[in-house]
Prior knowledge:
The structure holds 2 protein chains of 2 kinds. The relative contact order of chain A is 0.18. In chain A, 32% of the residues lie in helices and 18% in strands. Chain A starts with 33 loop residues before the first helix and ends with a helix. Chain A is of the alpha/beta class. Chain A has helices at residues 34-40, 60-70, 89-96, 124-134, 154-170, and strands at residues 53-55, 74-79, 82-88, 112-113, 118-119, 138-142, 148-153. Chain A is elongated, with a radius of gyration of 19 Å. By secondary structure, chain B is of the alpha/beta class. Chain B is built from 11 helices and 11 strands. Chain B has helices spanning 27-37, 76-86, 98-104, 106-115, 160-166, 180-192, 214-217, 222-225, 278-284, 306-321, 326-330; strands at 48-52, 67-70, 91-97, 120-125, 171-176, 197-202, 226-228, 236-237, 243-248, 252-257, 293-300. The A-B interface holds A 4-8, 17, 19-22, 27, 36, 39-40, 116, 118-119, 121-123, 125-126, 129, 133-134, 144 and B 10, 14, 19, 22-25, 28-29, 31-32, 134, 145-147, 150, 177-178, 180, 206-208, 210-211, 214, 217-218, 220-221.
Amino acid sequence: MICPDCGHDNIEGVDSCEECGQSMVVTDDAGNSLAEVISRHKVSVICEKAPITVESGVNVRAAIKLMVENRIGCLLVMNGDDLVGVFTERDVLNRVSSDLRQLDRPVAGFMTPTPETVTRDDSIAYALHCMDLGGYRHLPMVDSDSRPVGIISSRDVMRFLCVRFAEIRSG
Amino acid sequence: MSTELPVLTPKDFASDQELRWCPRCGDYSILAQMKKVLPELGIPKEKFCFVSGIGCSSRFPYYMNTYGFHGIHGRAPAIATAVKLANPDLHVWVITGDGDSLSIGGNHLMHVIRRNVDLNIILFNNRIYGLTKGQYSPTSPLGARTKSTPYGSVDNPLSPLSVAIGCEATFVARSVDVDIKHLKMVLTRAAHHKGTSFVEVYQDCNIFNSGAFYYASKKGEKESNIVYLEHGKPLVFGKERDKGIRIREGNLPEVVTLGDSVHKDDLLFHDEKTEEPSLAFMLARMRHPAFPEPMGVFRDVERPVYNEGVEQQVQDAIAQNGEGDLVALFNSGDTWAVT
């Protein structure tokens, strides 16, 4: 049992960490504050979807079709194994819609390059901070080699908060 | 009647105050290690005093069952100097952060180190202002996007250890919050040092700067990104322990791979006792990703201690002039009445 506070590897079943004394009891019970919940839980808890990716050379028309088919608002743009950008519905509105002749051009020209990312171990609070800081609705989740393994949206966070809030209110 | 000191445990140093750091904050681990180090020093807990400034880390004195002083922003070194001068038998610890010590309190930090006051400074470096919700700090890297640098920081960051070594610190060390055994060892070494000991701890702020030190703390990554310093031993690192640091032309470090043409004897051997601070300074300037970042004791030398020098002057003055008389002093020299 890894202590979420100090990282010490405890024997399974301990109530408190042998190193730092912090409670090892799962703290997502009703009654805990939202602040505590979003600080303690990692983004991997809410990142259930596998990312939908598209190669950077694919044209905008195909990329939009992919978004519509999957009912999503964000595609991860790849160069092989490397994440090079995100293409979102905001990009469609702001960069493509003014000239529809651009639909046949590569998506790389309209994406947001070098996107902010989070890792599995980052807290939901940190993801919210990143979204607030950059004005993002989506954050790719990457592994230790910077390869995308998921994507979280502001809707995922909102849903998580609503469930937790309801639990807290119901006691 | 027994005169033996009671055996203390980490719990004896825990106060009854509710911990108010964010869950999973690196500060918990540093607090835990401190509570483990102090009982092993064999010193009564009323002989410790923790002094802090302002910031998340500066809540530390509340959580220690010792004397403590939550001071004003950046001024912990000045307060701690006074505490030590007035109470030479106290073991004084300064707890500070990268903003508190290097921005607001940069001036005070410089002077406490150059004076070599006998106290211990622990700098929690998370490269961000956490308490005020995520503005950049003096150690935030170039390009860091924060609440106060929305287009990326254009400030060249300070290296805390370079600052300390530049002030001729007599003890300089670095560790990581979650590397608990190493951190405990470093804190113990700092406690035993006579003079100012300066310890930088890489501390993850999982809310506003998450993962800033993953390269130095995550298993599978840190082996390639940090090198442990051991006095008298070569600088070897890497998952396979097959890489090292060698000094090349121009007295500059380079990363080499051990093999047929490079042997351990060719590597840089660490010497924490050398008076000349150049080696420690060079090590402090080795930064990821160009180099593995050194962890451990960079420098541990002896020099006269400020508080002992002051105390000696006081005793000499008493021996020469006798015990002072404060009332007589107030009424000596030019005095006048205000009407």
